[in-house]
Amino acid sequence: FMDAIDVVEVLEKHGLQKPVSYVRSSQTSTEEAHALMVKLCRHTGRRTPPVSESVWRGVLQDLLDMQHSVYTCLLPDTCHQIFVESLLCSGRPENVVLAGQLIHCSAVSHDVVPVSVSFRDRGRGGLSAKVNYHTAVELVLAAAREYFNSSTTLTDPCIELARECLKLITDCPPAVQEEMDIISSLSVLESFNVNILPLQVRLRVERLSIIEQCISQCSKAYTQSALLLDLASLLRVAGNTHTHLGEEFNLCSLLGQCEGYMDLRARQELLAFSLTHCPPASIHPLLAASSDLQTQVLYQAVNYQMDPLEPECFWDETVQSAGPPSSVSPLGGAAGDLLHRTTNRTIEVLASTGLTTKAVLTAVSDHSWWKNQLNYLRPLHVRTQRGLYWHGKHEMLTFLKQVKSPQSFSGQFKGLYWHGKHMLTFPVSLSLSLSVLLQLASDAFPRDMTLSLAYLLALPQVLDANRCFEMQSHSALSLQLAAYYYSLQIYNHLVPCLKANTHTLYRADPKELIRLVTQHVTAHSDWPADVEELIGQLQVYNERLTDLTQAQVLQGLGRGVDVRRFSSDTHYKKQTILGLTETLDDSVWRISLSLAQRYSIPLWDIYMTHLEFLFTDSGLSTKDIEGRVDTLALFDSLKSEPESFHSHMSKYVLTSVEGTDLPRLLYYYTLLEECCGSYCSSVITPDTHIKLLKKLRSVTTGLDYRKMTDEVSDPLAALEPVLTSQNVLSISKLANRLPRPGGGVVSASAVHATWLRKLFWRGDPQVLKRPPQTEQDYLHAYDTCAKYLDRLLPADAVHFLDDITFSPLAVNQLSVSVRVEVMKRGMKALRQLREKSRKRGVDEVESDRSDTSSFDHALSHLQQSLAHLDTLGHSFILSLKDSNQERLQNYSRTYDLSRSERSKVQALAVTMATDGQPLEQIGELLGIAVGNLDLSIKTVLQVAVENVVSALSGDEDVVNDYPEPLMVLEGMVTAVDSVVSSDDLLAWLRPFCSDGSRAVRPRIEVLQILENNFSLRDSDVHLLLLYRTQAVLKDLQVEMDDIDNEEKRYRLFLQLLGDSRKWEEFQQLMLLLQAWPPMMKEECERNPWVVLTSSLIECCRGHGSEVRLDLGQEIMNMVRSLYPSKHKLPAQVTPTGVWEFKGHGRTLGLSPVFLTMYPVSQVCDSTCDPELLSLLLDAGLLVGCVPSPLYPPLSAHLLSRHREGGWDVEKAASELLQAGYRAQAGSLLLTYRGTHPGLSTFTTALTVIKKWL
After folding, report:
1. Which residues fall within 8 angstroms of residue 298, CB to CB, at 6 or more apart?
2. Which residues of 861-876 are buried (b: 16+ CB within 10 A; e: fewer)?
3. In this protein, which residues make up the domain named NBAS subunit of NRZ tethering complex C-terminal (predicted)?
């Protein structure tokens, strides 16, 4: 019952309201228990604001506690799986990371701790629990798929959550890789302008249709075949199987190269398939065959034919405008027939088939292709008087000259002097689209930059070239080409010259041209708008080229600089330059300065970063740092921003300086004082630091100066290790400059007291060379210290004497006699000092030293210490000290250190009370302590009870001292005697028990403890009853008037019973009856258990009943739970019959009342089990069952198991005889005594009764 209440409170703590009856009913149902834990975890994941990791850990611990105490039908690893699944599905990246800590992330993980280990166990030093690998993979995949399917676009946060979930599995099995691939496919689809829901991608059965959709949506998709193939791979278009295509590849390759096969398109597809699946050695010949086949396809597409006739009809109108004849080779020979049919029809085809033209130009943009294929496009080389004879229109000649340009260009930009004009007029001639030229330029860029530039010069709009330049990776060559392109265009705008065939501009050095144009446009302004745009682009690419050059210089330094990122990321650029300042190499330093100037990084940042480096990571001595700062003149610039300088130095520099490095600290504070002394807000100013360091540096070694001045630690703790007889006086003069935590400063007297304590225990190289070992040594050490007592204030003298007599070290090292002697000598010394003080009068500088009242207070303190030391010889204290129990020894030690101070003695007495020690011992302890303590056993117990109540209330100050407060309280209550009455305890505990704001369960348990040990008053009994009722009926307002007597409770029970329709409500009533005192009605029909069972059966039998469970088994469980309790049913209502409930097929234990209502016609194994028979025999109901069908199995059970159950067969036979069942009694005895079945007759049974009974 109490475990169920615990679970309800846990659920309520997390925001889930469930009655106790629900918990009791679901504790054996795996499905309901699983659903409850899932609901708890998911509810936590939905809380706003999101809960922290510590709250999640608490939820896991609560799950494990619930599983251990109530829901044992679940396994601990199931709880972990539920928890991890909820973390993964919570929609928070930090929760996904936490889930990764609770699973095995790879199949080869060596962490095989069972998942039943909790976070609490890990906190105690155990290993963390982890879900096994295969289950983890399933959970991760389920979460990732849920996120993926619920997302709407690639940028949906759920996509990133799905990716984070999948990254948890580090070895990436095939299923995880497939999910990662389908996520990656979304970005590819977006690049093809395909708008499709992620869920549609997953559900698409024929994923090849997605590839088709990409091609139809994006006009350039066909140019990105590699990307399409990658997309097909990501989408698993071919499935997950790897087909071995050996024989198929050979067949396709042979068929694709077969000249007799006239379907060129089909041959192209066959060769493409062969190239995709061929081994590496076959790629080159297949590429050659594919190139030849492509040429044939192009011929067929444009109807390209040649005719050897009319060789001279075209030269006059084309060659003269095309350039000098010497620039081309004469044509003639057998190849002349290729141009025979080059007529206007060809031009019409080219003009009307734009896509075909694009394909042609794209395919032939490589100069190597032209080198191998141009022979098929040339007419015959015929040498005539006029040179080269061409056939065709002017546009065709221009086209042929363009495609022949790779041979004309020599890889130098200077080669543009002949082709520039024709490249610029090319778009007009063939009307090529912008995208085609850009694609041609981009494709030619890696192989032939001259050809690429020629395509760009042919663009109709100059600025369109940016689209090509931006597609190229940033390199010196690509940026120079862009700058050269815009220099040419600017020059042409200012001085039109590109129409000339052999203009000297084409012969100029590109670098020189870029320099001259840049210099000219920079020196002048007020340019036309179109020229201004070109100048802006030129400056952009010049800037990028400069950045790249600088980055390459940085890369050459070996500092790990990312060149591309440096030229594009402003933040990275600044951080890189600042990082370069962290060097002692003068050349690198100069580079960082030039870069800072180049990119407008403040010089102050450069100098500050370098200064931080000098202090933290340079490895230089302080003298070298000072010299470098002066050489580089860093300080002149840094002091211009004193507030920022102070902030940086305090935050980054001071924390890196060792506290014992006094020279470095001195230089640090010197810089602060010179730059920003007025900006320092600390108690100790830089000027004071400088004075302290200069003095301390000369008199101490190994002092942790930072610890001494951090204003958090006690300065005396830092000074104690370095104090000696040689420097204590000098340091004491500086003490008033050291602040103490909480306010005030260190006094010279406190410094001397600290040194004397060190002198007493550890000696001094000059004054006490050997540390004391024996009792005489310690007395001698005190005498040595006593010589310096006149330097101490009375209060510090008391502290010194307490340190050497009442410290843990003193208790361990010194005997009581030595401590007494030291205390006596100390009191004597203080009396002498008081007399000297009186003689000197009140004119002392330190008025406290001459104040006799302070001496009187000190002597009073020492007098109590001496009296306390005398009590250590008491027999009770010695018995504690000599005990074998460590706890009692600790009592003795604590009393020894207490000095009989009231707070310490009270704390010890309270500890003894909460530990359950007898009150007589506590009283004896209080009687031994000296002084006016005003403590009694009653006072001590009251404080102890208050502490326990505070722990029960969740007070963080005491809860750690009482991890089991109820056990402590029960121990104290048990130990109470006549000194403290039950009324006292009740008076102390009643406010807590009456406080409705407190949790119900602790209040119930407190009252139960009092009820078990005392006779409670009626009001307290009723209060306990009210609390128990409220704990069960949490959703119902119950007052004391509703339950203060049995009749009212019975009336409330009947009212609730009449409103009950569900099994959970009936179960709640069962719990309520157990929480109340037993109600044994004279009429068994009014017994609440009988009434409850009868109503439950009636409800179950009714049409449309909401009760759907194994009713017979549940009622049997109820009877079993009552049997060992005070609610055990008497014989008149104990089940004596069984009823096979229609529709359930289970037995149902019933009283005689129910037996008459539902007579049993037959008994079988399914309706009568051994447990029921044993219960009947335990209740002595053998006689009552004779008229029922239960008697035969009951008597057989008695005979077969009478030894196990402890039943007396002869006594049972006697009871049968007394009830008038003579034949049954005789038959039972005959069987019991082993009579042969053939002799066991009715007559024999009646006869043996007279003889044996």
Report:
1. 304, 359, 360, 363
2. bbeebbebbeebeeee
3. 900-1016
